[in-house]
Amino acid sequence: MISVIIPVYNTAKFLFTCIKSIIDQTYQDLEIILVNDASTDNSIQICNTFREKDNRIVLIDKQQNEGVEKARYDGILTATRNYICFVDSDDWLEKDTLKRMYEKAVETDADYVEVGMQRVLDRHKIIKKKVHSTIKGLITQPQLFDSYYISFFGVNILSVNIWGKLYKSSILQNPPQPIGLAMGEDLYFNLEIFPHLQKIYIDDYIGYNYRFGGMTTQYNKNLLPNLKVLYSIKKRKIEKYKYDKASEYIRIELKNILISDIKQRILFKYGSKEDVINQITYSGAYPFTFR
Question: Bridge-partner residues for 168, per DSSP?
Fold first, then answer.
């Protein structure tokens, strides 16, 4: 009943733990879709080893790296089950996670069920437990859109990630088309599908282990261009749905992004003054102003 989609790119160090956590779920009616995004480490060998031992595994072995956004999209098009769950290949699930989400999905008929997560640093050292939202239980229309779509415009209410959720496949029959984002792809996904949801369920069960860590050591050249694209998309959504209460939030968010980008450029001595000005005023097909 569940298709689990795992995009894989150079995560051999963590991939065994991730896939094993899916195989060992107490809920076993699974289709496990591994999308190898042209990894250059031995990730494909690990994928093949698991595939040879478990006939529930479907392997998509891409010859060209196209990013996690496209890898997930390819996984959605391949999925055949009633529900879809995304897991990042350096993360892992608690053993009852899929069972818990599936039971809540059936019980509530929610378009997606979300579980809580815990942040993990390196080798399973738990740093902090965190339920994504203080909101718990079932949220339905019209409150769902009126009060919670704002979460994807810079207001921290619902989580913006797509992992840690179990989606009805029916709401992803026409999934958001990849637009080439290297950052903010989860946010874009939510901006597109959220207006079409009828109800969601937020569970306080801590079922997703999110691995984080490391310090930024170089300028992130994707930060400003990608988030400027998202700013333009948000403006169009505000206009389309007359969601005017989000307008001020996205302006504040964009200013903070610009400040962050400038600080990174100074810290890592990246580019010239002219480069900064060009990035602020224009990004490909998405020119904008603060007005």
Answer: 83
**Closest by CA position to 231, among listed 241, 221, 246:** 246
Contacts of 189 by beta carbon, 8 Å cutoff, 6+ apart: 162, 176
Number of helices (H), then strands (E), in the chain: 9, 10
| Residue 42 to residue 196: CA distance in whole angstroms | 40
Q: What are phi and psi of 272, to 5 degrees?
A: -105, 175
How far apart (Å, rounded) are the C-alpha atoms in residues 118 and 211? 9
3-state secondary structure of 124: coil
Model pTM? Answer: 0.90
Gap between the Cα atoms of 45 and 38, Å rounded: 12
H or E segment and range at residue 116: strand 112-121
| Alpha-carbon span 165 to 228, nearest angstrom | 26
Q: What is the pLDDT of residue 270?
A: 82
Q: What are phi and psi of 282, to 5 degrees?
A: -155, 140
Distance between CA atoms of residues 291 and 145, nearest Å: 25
Task: pLDDT band for 290, please (50, 70, 90 cuts).
Answer: very low
pLDDT digits (tens, 9 = 90+) for 235-276: 999 999 999 999 999 999 888 888 888 888 888 888 777 776
pLDDT, tens digit, 9 for 90 and up, residues 163-186: 999 999 999 999 999 999 999 999
Rounded to 10 deg, the angle between the 185-193 and 68-78 helix axes is: 40
H helix or E strand, kind and range, residue 36: strand 30-37
Q: Are 53 and 59 in contact (CB under 8 A)?
A: no
